[in-house]
Amino acid sequence: MRPEDRVGRWIDALAATLDTAASLAARGRAAYDADAAVPLAFEALANRVGELAKRLSAADPGRFSAPIWSQAARNRDFVVHHYDRIDRDALWQTVSRDFPALRQALEAARTN
Hints:
Order of helices and strands: HHHHH
Number of strands: 0
Helix content: over 70%
Structural class: mainly alpha
Distance between the termini: 21 Å
Largest sheet: none
Strand content: under 5%
Radius of gyration: 14 Å
Number of helices: 5
Number of domains: 1
């Protein structure tokens, strides 16, 4: 598989993951607080988003070098390795505020 095919597949996977996160966040903060499965889903989504951000940054640093990409990767590392210290409010902010910003960065990178 050509590297550009792999990058394209990762871009598509990240877009789909961010869209899933957006649909869960659209349920609202009350749903997030009421259903224990939603924060766990957010953790899994943060893991996937960060892993894809790492791959994209490594494969094409010219397009994926903005700070938001390394922030997503660092967030993934924290969620995976320090899951017992995750702040629920910070996780909500990450998915509801930072993921949409990452989605915009992804769309900008797609056009480059």
